[in-house]
Amino acid sequence: MRLHRSFPLVLLMVAAAAAQEHKGQSFRFGGVSDAPGHRMKVVRLLSLVNGAATQLVIPNTEQNSPKASPKQEIMDKVAGLQQGQIVRVEAEKWNGVPAVKSIELVDVKPGEESPRGFVFAEIYKDLKTHQQMVKLTKYGEPILVTLPGTKETPDPAVMDQVSKLKEGDVVYAQLSPGRTPQLASIYPYQPPQTGKVQKLEEQEVDGQKVTAVLIDADGKTVTALVPGKTVNKRWQPDPQIQRQAKSLRPGNDVEFITHDENDKTWLVDVQKVRPAPKETTRDRSRK
What we know:
- By secondary structure, the protein is α+β, with helices and mostly antiparallel strands.
- It has helices spanning 8-21, 72-79, 156-163, 239-246, 281-286, and strands at residues 25-34, 41-46, 53-58, 86-94, 97-105, 117-125, 132-138, 141-146, 170-176, 182-188, 193-205, 208-217, 220-225, 228-231, 234-237, 253-261, 264-272.
- The protein is flat, with a radius of gyration of 24 Å.
- The protein starts with 7 loop residues before the first helix and ends with a helix.
């Protein structure tokens, strides 16, 4: 599904956080096989950033064994894994080659694998900078983000969103890139819905003209407003979601996520869904 495509920026943050914490790195498990010559077992791992494959050997119990004698504690761990699962791996050098030191299954919560899916940990004030910080996790690795606004007065809308969360909540967060990422928005995670765009229109909300996307979802019309904020008495829509909304046309099939607040439904994300390829005469003849 489009809403679950890879998201390199976030995953690079995860990799960097893992390296700083010296707790290894998260990968997608690809299986176990014999190395050439059958003298060692290797674990195949796929990068969460770009899908690139890498292999680590499983150290033998005997240094110069003529055949594979992999460490049993590591074999016991990988025996219970399935391809595609997220694992955290620590590596070490063994006989001069990269090898598995430890491998653990990561407890991934529903929604966490979404590109903007995270788990909320806490909000706190940094004692050195006196800045309000939010700690999120992705696959168990911490990601620290700042709040928009000033040190003394963080953005009240984002603070209100954060104040409603509790530790362990899966959230849908939009991060602005930077040396320390900034939290642009954060909502409790909801699974994507599917529907068909009816039309786009402008609606008045608290005296401001706001873009609304009307979507037919299972026979019910969902009116999803593009979020934003008032700056100098003028409404400034979220630029990314505004672009997504403006790219839509009536009849487009979409996947979308919304958030209900103050009797309004706000658009969190929306992506066009590519129609399934039409069956050709040749396809039908092959059946």
